[in-house]
Design goal:
Layout lengths: L9 E4 L13 H13 L6 E3 L11 H15 L5 E4 L5 H13 L4 E5 L8 H13 L5 E5 L1 H4 L6 H9 L5 E4 L5 H10 L4 E4 L5 H6 L4 E4 L2 H17 L3 H19 L8 H11 L16 H14 L13
Length: about 325
C-alpha cells in the first residue's frame, strides 16, 4: 500500500464554496463553513472544489485561492482532498501540482468532461496525472455529470494494481460498483459511495465512506449511520437513521419545493439554522420567497428545523 489509505474513511462532505450576492468568492464565509463542518458536525474529512464546491464555476486562479484558503484554515485537522480535475490533462496536472504545494492530502479528479474522450484516452489521462503527482488520487467516477465514459470496476482495479488510482468516488444511484470494488481490491483502495441516492446501501455494500453535497447539512446523522453500519454491524439501526436523512434527499429528487438546485436548498437550510449559507454562482439562483416558505414548513414537519435533535428518538 503506497499511502496510508486508512485515513480516508467515514463521512467526507463535498464542501460548499461560498459566494456573495454579487457572485464574488467569499473567503470568510467559506472558511467559517469548513470550520463548522469539522468542529461542530464532526466531519471525518473534506472535499473542496468538487461538484458541490462549484469547481466548474471557478476560474483556475480562484481554485488556487480556495486551495490556499484550505491550507490556512483546516491545518491538517482532517484529511482534505482537493478537486484538481479539468478536461485538459495539462491543466489537470498544473492544478494538481498547485494543490500539492498547498498541502492536499489527496486529489479528486473528475473524468475529463464534455468532449467525451474515448476510454483509452481517459485511462491515459489518469496515468499521466499520476506520473506528475505524489499524493493519493481519487477517481471521480461521475459519468452522468461529466458526459464521459466511466471506468468499470475491473478497469479501476487494474489502475490500482498500477499504482495510478488509490481512491474512488462512485457516483451512481446503484451500488453495484461498490461491492464489485470491495471484492476486487478490498482495502487496497479507499472506496466512497458518491451519490445521495443510496448511501445506506453503499455502506452496506462495502464502501469505506460517503462523499456528497448533502453532507453539508446532514453530517452528524451520516456519521451515526456510518458507525452503525460499518463499525457496529447494525444494519437495522443504520436504516432507521437513513430514513431520517431521506426527507432531505427527497427535497431535491422529488423537487418538493419547486425546480431548484440541491446546492441552493442546502444554503437555505444553513440560513434557517442561523448560519451563513451564502450564494451559488449564477445560474444556480437562490430560492425565492415562496420556496423559502415551503422549505421552512418542510423542515418543521420533518424534524430538521433543529438539526441537533433529529436523532433524539432513534434507538
Amino acid at each position: 500500500m503506497p499511502y496510508a489509505l486508512e485515513r480516508f474513511r467515514g463521512i467526507f462532505p463535498a464542501a460548499l464554496t461560498m459566494f456573495d450576492r454579487d457572485n464574488n468568492f467569499d473567503e470568510e464565509a467559506t472558511a467559517r463553513h469548513w470550520d463548522w463542518l469539522i468542529t461542530h458536525q464532526g466531519a471525518d474529512g473534506l472535499i473542496i472544489t468538487g461538484t458541490s464546491g462549484e469547481f466548474i464555476a471557478l476560474t483556475d486562479e480562484e481554485r488556487l485561492r480556495v486551495f490556499r484558503l484550505a491550507q490556512s484554515v483546516i491545518q491538517k485537522r482532517v484529511p482534505v482532498i482537493f478537486g484538481s480535475g479539468h478536461y485538459s490533462t495539462k491543466l489537470t496536472i498544473k492544478l494538481s501540482e498547485e494543490a500539492q504545494k498547498c498541502g492536499a492530502d489527496g486529489l479528486i479528479i473528475i473524468l475529463p468532461y464534455y468532449q467525451k474522450p474515448p476510454k483509452p484516452a481517459v485511462i491515459e489521462h489518469y496515468r499521466r496525472v499520476r506520473k506528475a503527482t505524489n499524493v493519493p488520487i481519487m477517481l471521480y467516477n461521475n459519468p452522468h455529470n461529466s458526459a464521459c465514459v466511466d471506468l468499470n470496476p475491473r478497469e479501476i482495479a487494474q489502475l490500482v494494481d498500477e499504482d495510478v488510482l488509490h481512491m474512488v468516488k462512485s457516483t451512481y444511484g446503484t451500488v453495484e460498483p461498490v461491492h464489485d470494488l470491495s471484492y476486487l481490491v478490498g482495502d487496497r483502495m479507499a472506496v466512497f459511495y458518491g451519490s445521495f441516492l443510496a448511501a445506506y446501501e453503499g455502506l452496506c455494500a462495502g464502501a469505506h465512506g460517503w462523499i456528497s453535497g448533502i453532507l453539508n447539512v446532514v453530517t452528524k446523522a451520516a456519521k451515526v449511520m456510518h458507525k452503525a453500519v460499518v463499525t457496529e454491524n447494525d444494519a437495522r439501526k443504520g436504516f432507521r437513521i437513513w430514513k431520517k436523512i431521506l426527507p432531505i434527499v427527497h427535497l431535491w429528487t422529488y423537487q418538493q419545493i419547486g425546480p431548484v438546485s440541491d446546492l441552493a436548498i442546502y444554503r437555505s437550510i444553513l440560513n434557517f439554522w442561523g448560519l451563513k449559507g451564502g450564494y451559488c454562482r449564477d445560474p444556480f439562483f437562490p430560492l425565492d420567497g415562496k420556496q423559502e416558505g415551503k422549505l421552512r414548513e418542510f423542515l418543521e414537519r420533518s424534524g430538521w428545523i433543529d438539526p441537533d435533535h433529529v436523532l433524539d428518538n432513534v434507538q
